[in-house]
What does this fold into?
Amino acid sequence: MKNWWDDKVIYQIYPKSFMDSNGDGIGDIPGIISKMDYMKELGVDIVWISPIYESPFIDQGYDISDYRKIAECFGTMEEFELLLEEAKKRDMYIIMDLVINHCSDQHEWFKKALKDPDGRYGKYFYFEKGVNGQPPSNYRSYFGGNMWEEVPGRENLYYLHSFAKQQPDLNWYNQEVLDELYDMVNWWLDKGVAGFRIDAIINIKKNLLFENYEADGPDNLCGVEKIVAGALASKKGPSIGDMLQDLRNNTFKKHDAFTLGEVFNMKEDELKEFIGEDGHFSSIFDFSLHLLTNCEQGWYYAKDVSVKEMKAALIKSQESTKDIGFMTNVVENHDQPRSVDIFIPEWIDKNDGSKLLATSIFLLKGIPCIYQGQELGMTNMDFKRVEDFNDISTLDQYNKGLSLGMTETEAFDMCKKYSRDNARTVMQWDDSAYGGFTTGTPWFWSNQNYKAINAKAQENDPNSVLNYYRKLFALRRNKKYNNIFVYGEFKPIYEDIDDIFAYKRVFCEEEITVISNWGKEAFDIECDKEIILSNKDISSSKNNTNILKIYPGQVVVLH
Ligand code: TEU
Ligand code: CA
It folds into this structure.
């Protein structure tokens, strides 16, 4: 095997909403420990935990005020160390979220910087003077508004933030900052974490000339995504590649750590540099499905996607990784609505759909990554009013919708569909109050449907989504097929039939075929192969002939 992570399965935990052990309504580390066996049985190897560091939680922990402390609401460092031991006992790995493009405005570095912007800590961030009473340049932050925020009490002085104004960007062109960050990364790796999911990392590379660009919206600003990492950013200083290699050489490489980059806006021809041999990261997420729906310009521009488009995007990205490395396959995370509500056509039953999607995505080449609750087919929340949302970016998208001419109802409906809060409702463990997530009052909503959709009920139902996921990952792990699923070449088939997404995985002389039917009509194929998995009863699919009938919403895996 080339790397220890090649054949692994990842599970993402959003800690606030996973499992509360002490009744304060907030998920915590002891809660995670209590569910390690659950994850093991599911077939999970690597557990990625969204940020658990000290934070004011303006952006739910993606604003870190102390990189070496566990937030009190999640527990203690001793409990975290116990979690590492409990993982080890089960041959599992813990990876943390590394948020180093920015920190919190409550971090002591930033507090000191505000006191003395010209001093040592001022150089940890980007401070610039305004121009003609205006901010230094016209960039729009990801969460709306100008990326430059005026320093309180100082006229005409601004600091830069790619996300919320409470998340000032760290200056990656200051060696002292790099030393601090690398030290911190090594400190966690020495503790025994197996690696990191690396947040919003492409944003560290900026055009330090801070020029104005052509506005792309009624706010007269230009989207930050246009100025980071790519051509516009490369004018001064090292390339993003040099910066990421330096990070790797000083940290991850020495520890053989698994690193999973959250990378948007990479140039296509850079894939090899990112995930090839000696690449910047072990893997990066394949966001090609999300980019089709709601990611780039904001939810106002989001659209429903057809199976044809989804299939084309997946084939394209599978082919791009050929002989290069592994992307991480993902359809859900804490920034996205639930996958059954966004990728499954309405004529397909939701349970069938969850299984259909899981099979088609996680048997592709790449590392499977699932998000808490996806394995139960958890759905979007039936939010009732705009006040129900908590997420900072949802409120921004709502206002953006209004400013682009939507009515309040339209803007609300849009957010209801795409809000990041859909993924942040508390985990549904059983049919007791709040889905058994807490004995107290949860910090956030529990989805109304927890009585119907919960882990305990699904344990006892052989046809549940949960039990299907277990079968799927067990099949992938099965020694007989493992090399095919991990290293096998990807070859699309039936490419010209719009509603059929199908492919082969080929390794040496052996092959596995996955055929999924997203359409409204049954699809017949001639087939003498062994069916090793399907999301529907196959007794009616095969009637003693060589014809295999694949029904709408059905997926079959053939050996
Ligand atoms: O997300 C990075 C990012 O680019 C997001 O703004 C993404 O485009 C958006 O969420 C899609 O709706 C990461 C984290 O995953 C996110 O939770 C954080 O808010 C963000 O970084 C800032 O740290
Ligand atoms: Ca708690």
The chain has a mean pLDDT of 95. The CA atoms of residues 535 and 555 lie 6 Å apart.
